[in-house]
Amino acid sequence: MVPAIEMLPETNRRKGFFEQEEYEAVLARLPDQLKGVLTVGYWTGMRKEEIQGLKWDQIDLFNRLAYRERTKNGEDRTLPLNDELSAVFERQAAARWHACAYVFYRGPECIHDFRNAWAAATKAAGCPGRLFHDLRRTGVRNLIRAGMAQSVAMLISCRKDARMLARYNIADARDVQYAMQKVSAYEARKREDRRLRLEVE
Fold first, then answer.
1. What CATH architecture is 20-200?
2. Sheet holding 77-80, edge to edge
3. What is the pLDDT of residue 167?
4. Which pLDDT belongs to residue 87?
5. Weakly modelled stretches of the chain, pLDDT under 70
6. How many CB atoms lie within 10 A of CB 107?
7. N vs C: which end of the chain shows fewer Cβ within 10 Å?
8. pLDDT value at position 170?
């Protein structure tokens, strides 16, 4: 028998996330080679390192799928691509340098450090100090607000916290595809609501 160990409370958790208008403002101010990295982060909540490490053998443009890194037990994970994500990968494919296996690259290697460009873009967009990691919370938050089960949101964003996942059923690929459709519709409604408010003002 293993005794139960009480977990200490987390006191240093960040609570930042991106609103839609903040994401769009930062996107407009980033260099072109980084726009896709931000878009993938915003829509999926994937870790920066996983986005940076994406290779073309993980992307199926025809079927609109991205194959993610394997889990610890060797299971494959597949992410259906919505319209905005498909557009990102299609643009990257059109500009692809075939000597590089990475989707997002600088020279022959994947993009590693973009702290200076990120700091400049977030400052110019009016949200200085915002971290790329804040997109992790943003992606999950948007999925849940769009009506997805938390288990599906965690699967899309690669959350592995057993304390969170243990309370939910395992999601399958159909759940993930439906989730991406739902969050696309949710984001479109937010954008339309903003447009209508601006017209009234």
1. Orthogonal Bundle (1.10)
2. 59-60, 65-68, 77-80
3. 36
4. 96
5. 1-15, 69-76, 158-175
6. 9
7. N
8. 40
Torsion of CA 115, 118, 122, 127, to 10 degrees: -40
Structural domain boundaries in the chain: 20-200
- How big, in percent rounded to 5, are the helix, strand and coil portions of the chain? 50, 10, 40
> Which tokens hold the place of 54?
């994406």
pLDDT tens readout for residues 72-96: 545 567 888 999 999 999 999 999 8
**Cα–Cα distance for residue pair 25/74, rounded to 1 Å:** 38
Q: Is the separation of the CB atoms in 111 and 52 below 8 Å? A: yes
Which of left, alpha, beta for 126 (phi over 0: left; psi -120 to 50: alpha)?
left
